[in-house]
Design a protein that fits this description.
Blueprint: H1 8-28, H2 41-51, H3 56-69, H4 73-77, H5 81-88, H6 94-109, H7 130-139, H8 150-159, H9 172-181, H10 187-200, H11 219-222
Helix pairs in contact: 1-10, 2-3, 2-7, 5-6, 8-10
């Protein structure tokens, strides 16, 4: 059951955080090419593979030339691996990304770009782990799924409390906290709001707590001097 690892007070606090994050996002959210109306489900899912362990600005820099060269899943599936890797080099981890993208592309190209709507079916698809599975469910099927990476994890752990397990994929509290946070009427925007807030305000080393709309309710910020 969703939220089983969360206390009642944590659910209330995370529910309130949703609204504040979305309000902040309306004013401060980044303008990125895959968030525009011209971006298809194909673009959005591909981008999530590119964004893992890479800054959004770096991915934005290759967005247009990449998708001009690879306008569809079929184009990626039919491309020699070395050619795909060449286009991916600017974002790093190009060999790993090429393998993941071609695994996704081979599956999608044979099925008119449609992925299963059940996460349990995604384990059968090459290149699909928990993060990409959630991206598929979010962007293609409209499900309220979190894009839980180190940035969302950092926000949740600062706002509430640290996780227990090192791997964010398996920590039950963190998984439930992320899933509860994503229970928004605008799940895509909520995910983008959290990721932008983590990139621009709740930064890893020098967070701007004084600019954070959640400072008064953030457990980590309340115990941290303003000038640090």
């Amino acid at each position: 059951m969703l939220g089983r690892q969360l206390s009642k007070s944590e659910k209330v606090r995370l529910s309130r955080a949703r609204g504040r994050l979305l309000s902040w996002f309306e004013v401060h959210g980044r303008i990125l090419p895959w968030r525009g109306e011209a971006a298809s489900t194909y673009h959005k899912i591909c981008v999530e593979v590119l964004l893992q362990r890479t800054r959004a600005e770096t991915v934005a820099g290759i967005y247009h030339p990449f998708f001009e060269r690879f306008p569809s899943w079929a184009a990626i599936a039919a491309t020699p691996r070395s050619d795909l890797e060449r286009y991916l080099k600017p974002v790093g981890l190009w060999q790993r990304r090429a393998i993941s993208l071609q695994g996704l592309a081979a599956y999608a190209a044979a099925r008119n770009g449609i992925f299963p709507s059940a996460a349990s079916e995604h384990a059968k698809i090459p290149g699909v782990g928990q993060y990409v599975s959630n991206a598929i469910l979010l962007f293609q099927h409209g499900q309220r799924k979190p894009l839980l990476d180190v940035n969302m994890a950092r926000f949740l752990e600062r706002y509430e409390r640290p996780r227990v397990l090192a791997d964010i994929r398996y920590d039950p509290w963190l998984q439930d906290a992320a899933a509860w946070l994503a229970r928004s009427s605008s799940p895509k925007e909520l995910n983008w709001a959290v990721l932008d807030h983590a990139a621009l305000v709740c930064k890893p080393r020098k967070p701007y707590c004084e600019k954070c709309p959640l400072r008064s309710s953030c457990n980590w910020a309340r115990g941290r001097p303003m000038d640090l």
